[in-house]
Design brief:
The chain is built from 19 helices and twelve strands. Helix 2 runs parallel beside helix 5, helix 5 runs antiparallel to helix 10 and helix 8 runs antiparallel to helix 9. The strands form three sheets. The protein has a six-stranded mixed sheet, with helices on both faces. Strands 2-1-4-5 form a four-stranded antiparallel sheet, covered by helices on one side. The radius of gyration is 34 Å and the shape is elongated. It is an alpha/beta fold. Helix 16 links the parallel strand 9 and strand 10. It is a multi-pass membrane protein. Keywords: ATP-binding, Membrane, Nucleotide-binding, Transmembrane, Transmembrane helix. This is ABC transporter, ATP-binding protein. It comes from Corynebacterium ammoniagenes DSM 20306.
Length: about 575
């Protein structure tokens, strides 16, 4: 059963953000400096309609006041407003982007440090969605909303203060509009967070479904599950549409409320303006300036309305990102394992993904220097057994031990010293060949690296002009599949574990370089305990013991010769294999 990472609550999110803010040098000083700059810009911006109102009074009264002088003051106010607001936006945006960058690194670092079975249980689609879609959504929300929020917030506050300063009766405008704001905000915030969180969760589920279909396309085709997988993806995609429509509908209702607020505000402003002019408390120009302030509020209010959608979506993404880091992995204390030898025992293990047993009552023993091969049709449970032995999954019952210690209780250092797993899907990290190999052994010498490359028969290395300094991966030399597999096997030799789990790691042996890749695999398993999920039955035939799996159970076991004589499932597989080769 999939156990997604949690979504953080507001107190948890606030705590994590505060921690990351403290990590930015002089974050508090930068924040208050940005606030001062934005406040100066907002005050200067309010001075613009006031100056326009003065021009109205000059024209009406035909006074000697210079329109040119007022115009100069108007231009100066505009320049101050623009420059200080832009400066404040820059300081505030730089601070927030640094926090987002730290949060992104924290999430990735936490995910890399989590037990692998925890990531597997949560589903890689959920983690991929949080580390890509949610990070992108949060970054977009910060980039788009910080300037608008700052500008709109200060514009509203300074406008309210300026109106009250002009005449206390404009307080009635605030009194008339504020209750509607509060009602609209409470109604919106009561339903919006849950709807946006549901939208993000449905997007994660869609990503998981698509990844499952792509990565398992071989199994999907083999069992004719194309229509079923298509229907699952369609259902997940339609959930995204429905949750997205629900979130947008919330925004539409909020817009209706905001239009009502604007109408009430302008109506109240006109009434107050008429009363103050009639009583002589204010001039026509002053009232004109006040109304221009109210009209200019339409931009900030509409800006806030537009970004609330992005803010809610961004907060939903932030809560999902923080959900990964709120419970960072705790270092596993050493289990007190004895010196590494490589004794492996899988005792009566069963495991379920939530719908029936994937593996049931499987037992096997591997002594140092022995190789046990597992064969069977796709879906027989071979890879699940390999994952259980590698510690990627925790068995529902039974035990998996190495040197007498449960695999899942070993500390990182104890596990790395004893156990390594390599599959058909290997990754060539971007960087130099030396950097790629040093991931397995940081202090490895050039001589050691060259030695392991020769031991895995990587003849292509001798043709690299820059040797270990050759850049490989996405930004460099693109290694062929066989070469990439040999590089992965070379890393394992540098790591030098006592137990090796190979999950169809030589499946590429059917292509050019088959013998070199097979020899490399034999070099890795020599003098080590090895569990080999065999894609090629000729590889399985060399093992000391062969386990034949079907529907999650071991149905046959023995040596190659014994199983051929038994005239059972293995003999059928071998006959089909040989016929295919012919």
């Amino acid at each position: 059963m999939s156990m997604r990472f949690p979504t953080a609550t507001w107190p948890e999110t606030r705590k994590v953000l505060a921690r990351h803010l403290r990590q930015v040098p002089q974050a508090r000083q930068q924040f208050f400096f940005a606030i001062v700059l934005l406040a100066i810009g907002a005050v200067a911006n309010i001075w613009i309609p006031i100056q326009l109102g003065r021009i109205v009074d000059v024209v009406i009264d035909s006074t000697d006041a210079s329109v040119a002088r007022i115009s100069v003051e108007l231009i100066i106010a505009a320049l101050i407003a623009a420059s200080f607001s832009a400066w404040g936006f820059f300081v505030l945006s730089r601070l927030t982007e640094r926090v987002i960058a730290n949060l992104r690194e924290d999430m990735v670092g936490t995910a890399l440090g989590l037990p692998v079975h925890r990531v597997e249980d949560a589903g890689t689609g959920d983690l991929v969605s949080r580390s890509t879609d949610d990070v992108a959504e949060l970054s977009k929300a910060v980039t788009e909303t910080v300037p608008i929020l700052a500008n709109s917030g200060f514009a509203i506050v300074t406008t309210a203060l300026a109106l009250v300063t002009l005449d206390w009766q404009f307080l009635l405008v605030i009194v008339a509009a504020t209750p509607i704001y509060i009602i609209a905000a409470r109604r919106y915030l009561r339903v919006a967070p849950g709807r946006y969180a549901a939208e993000r969760a449905s997007m994660a589920d869609r990503a998981r479904r698509v990844l499952e279909a792509i990565r398992g396309r071989g199994t999907v085709r083999a069992f004719g599950m194309e229509e079923s997988m298509h229907n699952r993806i369609h259902a997940a995609s339609w959930d995204v549409v429905e949750h997205g429509y629900s979130a947008r509908r919330t925004m539409f209702v909020l817009q209706l409320w905001m239009t009502s607020v604007e109408f009430v505000m302008l109506t109240a402003g006109l009434i107050v303006g008429f009363i103050t002019v009639q009583s002589g408390a204010m001039t026509v120009g002053a009232v004109t300036g006040a109304m221009l302030m109210l009209i200019r509020l339409r931009g900030p209010l509409m800006g806030l309305m537009r970004v609330l959608d992005t803010i809610q979506s961004g907060y939903a993404s932030l809560a999902r990102i923080v959900g990964v880091v709120i419970n960072p992995p705790q270092p596993t204390t050493p289990a007190g394992a004895p010196p590494k030898e490589g004794h492996v025992e899988v005792n009566n293990v069963s495991f379920s993904y939530g719908q029936g047993w994937a593996v049931e009552n499987v037992s096997l023993t591997i002594e140092p220097g022995e190789t046990v091969a597992m064969v069977g049709a796709s879906g027989a449970g071979k890879t699940t057994v390999a994952a259980l032995l590698a510690g990627l999954r925790v068995p529902d019952s039974g035990s998996v031990t190495i040197d007498g210690v449960e695999v899942t209780t070993l500390s990182d250092a104890e596990r790395v010293a004893r156990l390594a797993m390599i599959s058909q899907d290997v990754h060539v990290f971007s960087g130099t060949l030396r950097e790629d190999l040093s991931l397995a052994k940081a202090n490895a010498t050039d001589a050691e690296m060259i030695d392991v490359l020769h031991r895995v028969h990587a003849e292509w290395f001798d043709h690299l002009a820059d040797g270990l300094d050759t850049v490989v991966g996405a930004q460099g030399v693109q290694l062929e599949p066989v070469a990439a597999q040999q590089l992965a096997l070379a890393r394992m030799l540098l790591l030098d574990p006592r137990v090796v789990v190979m999950d169809e790691a030589t499946a590429e042996a059917g292509s050019q370089g088959a013998q070199a890749l097979q020899d490399a695999a034999e070099e890795l398993t020599r003098d080590r305990a090895a569990l080999v999920v065999a894609h090629r039955l000729d590889q399985a035939s060399r093992a000391e013991e062969i386990l034949v799996m079907d529907n999650g159970r071991v149905v046959e076991r023995g040596t190659h010769e014994q199983l051929l004589k038994s005239d059972g499932r293995y003999q059928q597989l071998w006959t089909a294999w040989m016929r295919g080769r012919e």
